[in-house]
């Protein structure tokens, strides 16, 4: 098992994400998946205003075989993140719920500082296996790249 | 379902509902893409089998060995004479995959629940979250039945003699187009396209909206008339890692009565990485 005890430098604290990581730390594998299942029951419902775009197939993360849709904006320098995930894929729902809880209201720097091997650090990568990992990793990368893009757009409009 | 070549390999959701309590003779096995789906609720008597952590060896790219297979059957109360009924998400992809692995190890009585999890849920049949426990089974697996599994050298020879190959991936994967789309998954292969001579019949064309298999007439139209395959052809089916193609293997073998179909589980993640093998690409990238 890779160590999941991860502390980022204080000036780049990803505090909510670190809280989540420490929740996973110290659990055995069965408990970690139970916690992931708990997260999957907490994904906020997609706001009404995004549903038409979802139904039109916009904002989908193409790398993930499960339908995952993300809306990412910056409002007053803070990340505003919304998501929809097909309910028949609770593993993906759970991971996206973790991302939402960690990044909603975070600064772009905090999102950028999130570890790219988050699934390993959560201790759920091994059971997922090589064939399921890339899709979930892509969701994290998609959040990061969209936040970067939004930041450039905001900078450009000033 | 009676119209199929081997209708005895399929059972309806209704049949499962009526027979699920006979746990001394029948074991219902759920096999899903999603690792947590079973835990959210399942056919009350069903046990879980994961295609990664249960069926695949974690070091060598291969299935688990005979001993491990025997062990995982016994843990779930499956003996050689148990009738195993498979079902799962994604229109029974993984159910067919697990079914195929059980056939590989020579399990005699395997069935697929037509319509899978989707139909069972849509019909609001009983679901439970409690994991059932069964008395340990007694299992002796056979040597792998290689008449249903193709390896790369065999696929190369098959291709050279122009025998039929069915690529069951999406048209974009088959043509190689997806490889050139930015931000699209590259599926773990260094080259894109398909095995020369392979026809493209996406696996999903064999299922109805409700998750059940299409009628025999529709399937015959698809494979026999459109693709001109014949029931006595030697056919190799492949996809990316052999999961979707085990679904097509099931359709050709049991629903249409083909008797010489193999699944190439190495599939594109092997072929698209092999040095020097021929590849056909029907998509031309803009220069």
Task: Describe this protein's structure.
The complex is a heterodimer of chains A (158) and B (287). Chain A is mostly helical. Helix content of chain A is 50%, strand content 10%. In chain A, strands 1-2 form a two-stranded antiparallel sheet. In chain A, helix 1 (15-24) packs across helix 4 (90-103) and helix 2 (29-40) packs across helix 4 (90-103). Chain A starts with 14 loop residues before the first helix and ends with a helix. By secondary structure, chain B is α/β, with parallel strands linked by helices. Chain B is built from 9 helices and 9 strands. In chain B, strands 1-5-4-2-3 form a 5-stranded parallel beta sheet. A 4-stranded parallel beta sheet of chain B has the order 7-6-8-9, sandwiched between helices. Chain B starts with 9 loop residues before the first strand and ends in a 16-residue tail after the last helix. The interface between A and B is medium-sized, with 23 and 20 residues.
Helix-strand layout with pairing:
The complex is a heterodimer of chains A (158) and B (287).
Chain A: H1 15-24, H2 29-40, H3 51-55, E1 68-75, E2 78-85, H4 90-103, H5 108-113, H6 118-121, H7 125-128, H8 133-156
Antiparallel strand pairs in A: 1-2
Helix pairs in contact in A: 1-4, 2-4
Chain B: E1 10-11, H1 13-19, E2 26-30, E3 47-48, H2 66-75, E4 83-87, H3 93-104, E5 110-113, H4 116-122, H5 152-160, E6 165-167, H6 171-175, E7 199-200, H7 216-226, E8 235-238, H8 244-255, E9 261-263, H9 267-271
Parallel strand pairs in B: 1-5, 2-3, 2-4, 4-5, 6-7, 6-8, 8-9
Radius of gyration of chain B: 19 Å
Strand content of chain B: 5-15%
Sheet with the most strands, sense and barrel status of chain A: 2 strands, antiparallel
Structural class of chain A: mainly alpha
- Quaternary structure type: heterodimer
Largest interface: A-B, 23 and 20 residues
- Give the overall average pLDDT of chain B: 94
Give the rounded overall mean pLDDT of chain A.
89
How far the N terminus sits from the C terminus of chain A, by CA atoms, comes to 46 Å
Roughly how many Å is the radius of gyration of chain A? 15 Å
* Helix/strand order of chain B: EHEEHEHEHHEHEHEHEH
Strand content of chain A: 5-15%
Coarse morphology of chain B? globular
Low-confidence stretches of chain B: none
Q: Please estimate the helix content of chain B.
A: 25-40%
Instruction: Count helical runs of chain B.
Output: 9
């Amino acid at each position: 098992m890779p160590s999941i005890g991860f502390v980022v430098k204080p000036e780049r604290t990803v505090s909510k994400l670190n809280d989540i990581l420490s929740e996973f730390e110290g659990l055995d594998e069965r408990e970690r998946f139970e916690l992931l299942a708990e997260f999957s029951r907490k994904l906020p419902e997609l706001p009404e205003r995004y549903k038409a775009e979802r139904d039109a197939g916009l904002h989908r993360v193409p790398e993930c075989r499960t339908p995952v849709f993300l809306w990412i904006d910056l409002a007053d320098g803070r990340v505003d993140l919304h998501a929809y995930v097909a309910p028949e894929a609770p593993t993906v729902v759970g991971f996206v719920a973790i991302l939402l809880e960690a990044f909603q209201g975070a600064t772009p720097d905090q999102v950028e500082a999130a570890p790219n091997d988050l699934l390993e650090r959560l201790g759920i990568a091994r059971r997922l296996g090589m064939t399921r990992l890339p899709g979930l990793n892509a969701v994290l990368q998609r959040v990061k790249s969209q936040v970067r893009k939004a930041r450039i757009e905001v900078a450009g409009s000033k | 379902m009676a119209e199929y070549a081997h209708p005895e390999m399929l059972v309806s959701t209704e049949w499962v509902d009526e027979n699920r309590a006979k746990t001394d003779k029948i074991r219902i096995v759920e096999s899903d893409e999603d690792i947590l789906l079973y835990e959210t609720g399942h056919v009350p008597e069903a046990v879980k089998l994961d295609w990664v952590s249960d069926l695949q060896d974690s070091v060598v790219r291969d299935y688990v060995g005979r001993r491990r297979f025997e062990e995982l059957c016994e843990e779930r109360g499956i003996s050689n004479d148990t009738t195993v009924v498979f079902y799962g998400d994604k229109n029974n992809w993984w159910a067919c995959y697990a079914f195929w692995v059980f056939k590989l190890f020579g399990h005699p009585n395997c069935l697929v629940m037509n319509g899978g999890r989707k139909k069972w849920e849509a019909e609001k049949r009983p679901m439970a979250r409690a994991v059932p426990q069964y008395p340990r089974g007694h299992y002796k697996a056979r040597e792998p039945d290689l008449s249903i599994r193709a390896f790369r050298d065999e696929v190369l020879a098959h291709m050279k003699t122009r025998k039929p190959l069915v690529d069951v991936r999406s048209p974009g994967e088959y043509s190689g187009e997806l490889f050139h789309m930015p931000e699209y998954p590259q599926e773990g292969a260094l080259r894109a396209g398909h095995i020369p001579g392979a026809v493209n019949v996406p696996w999903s064309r064999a299922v109805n909206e409700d998750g059940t298999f299409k009628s025999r007439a529709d399937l015959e139209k698809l494979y026999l008339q459109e693709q001109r395959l014949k029931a006595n052809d030697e056919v190799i089916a492949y996809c990316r890692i052999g999961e979707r193609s085990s679904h097509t293997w099931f359709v050709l073998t049991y629903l249409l009565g083909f008797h010489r179909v193999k699944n190439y589980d190495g599939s594109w993640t092997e072929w698209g990485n092999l040095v020097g093998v021929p590849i056909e690409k029907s998509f031309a990238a803009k220069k």
